[in-house]
Amino acid sequence: MRYDLVIFDNDGVLVDSEPISNRHLAAYLTELGHPTSYEDSIRDYMGSAMHRIHELVLERTGRPLPEDFDDVFHARVFAAFERELQPVAGVAGVLEKLAADGVPYCVASSGSHERIRVGHRATGLDRWFADERIFSSQDVGRGKPAPDLFLYAAERMGVEPGRCVVVEDSPLGVQAAVAAGMDVYGFTAMTPAARLAGATQLFSDMGELADLLV
Asked: Which helix (DSSP H) or strand (DSSP E) does residue 61 occupy?
């Protein structure tokens, strides 16, 4: 293994949550008077921490989102996770190989700790991620595209940034990894390759990742 730490994004990389969450985000924003299509949501908000959604809506419309926006949105999404969420195809095999080979790994997500854990419990991925392997934008001052979250995860895991590789599927995540001085493998299953152009390498099948990392 050429890296000392593999840092996974969560949504769209470990759990196949982006279609679910962006469908509900688009519907809720539209319901609140901010017409948003599913495609708009993917383009503008995929990979974002919640504060960025608030900031973009306020910047574009001059109107803040309701104070309970996060709570209502998460309640809807978490209920949908319990019904529908699946792990990304092939990711369990990747985690199994990393664990068998003794390669350190963790997750660093724009989502909240609660969102990460709900998704992992619903998909059975919680067996691979003890608390000390889970990092959220809640842990740092700035979310992606700032490098803070990835740098924090590396520090907590005891690995120099230059010895880390990030697995990401969003432009914001790729920007954050590059800014952190880390290699980044861009997962193109949902995101056009051109939007992840800053990645060290691109791949479209999660089952290929373990072999790509060696």
From this structure: helix 50-61
SS3 (DSSP) at 186: strand
d(C-alpha 149, C-alpha 140), whole Å: 6
pLDDT of residue 45: 92
Structure-token match 């997962």, residue found: 187
The two structure tokens encoding residue 64? 């803040």
Task: Please tell me the distance from the alpha carbon of residue 88 to that of residue 155, in angstroms, as a whole number.
Answer: 27
- Residue-level pLDDT at 47: 80
- Which residues of the chain register pLDDT less than 70? none
Tokens of 136: 């959220």
Residue 6, helix vs strand vs coil: strand
pTM assigned to the model? 0.90
Give per-residue pLDDT as tens, 71-96: 999 999 999 999 999 999 999 999 99
The sign of the torsion formed by the CA atoms of 133, 137, 141, 144 equals: positive
Chain centre distance of CA 83 = 20
Angle subtended at Cα 26 by Cα 25 and Cα 32, rounded to the nearest 5 degrees: 90
Q: Are strands 5-8 and 201-203 parallel, antiparallel or unpaired?
A: unpaired
Cα distance between residue 48 and residue 66, in whole Å = 18
Q: Are the beta carbons of 179 and 206 closer than 8 angstroms?
A: no
Cα(109)–Cα(116) distance, integer angstroms:
8
